[in-house]
Amino acid sequence: MPKMKTKSAAKKRIRVTGSGKLMAAGDGMRHNLEHKSSKKRRALSRDSVISKHQNKRMSFLLGR
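RE: above sequence
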């Protein structure tokens, strides 16, 4: 049986920490940035741990 391929869109957007958590940048950073506060923009630009609901689906896409 062949190996399952990793979805390339997922591997570009999600990274796995050493402890196995999945991290992704905040969404909402593509447009309308002039209306967001500097504090909000800094928070969204940082990577954060994705929710446990998305974790199962993203793990599947990454072939884990």
